[in-house]
GyrI-like domain-containing protein
Amino acid sequence: MTSEPGAGASGPELITADQETTAVVRGVVRMSELRGFFDHSFQALPVAISAQDVAIMSPAFAFYHQPPGETADLEVGFITDRAIQPDGDVAAGSIPGGRVARLVHLGGYEGLGASWERLNSWIREQGLTPGQTIWEYYVTEPTPDMDPSELRTELNWSVEDNQG
């Protein structure tokens, strides 16, 4: 059974997120090269993190410093229990705290664009202003033999404070 892109996503909500310490690989990457960047990063990250006896505290994520266009300025990694020391391409980072609009996308990655559009529209319908930073947690780790409809991705979009 297939579903339309964005179908099955949970309703958006507004939350207050805590700042999180992360271990990341950062890059500015052409959209056509994202898969290779993710593959390289998720090979390097566990090695560097475990070598420093740092604990992974979250599913994998991608943090975009601004919404992607032809390129993406992003960090991929994991929330960790403390900062790591730089090791090759792996460095310490953070995900900012503050007001965040959140939506959970159910289904394959090809439907993420529609869910991001849905979240953006919802933010504006609430009279809020979308911020520059967005990030996604890959709650369900993909495997080669899994049904893509079972993937779960948590979308997060920073929200600007409209109060004067």
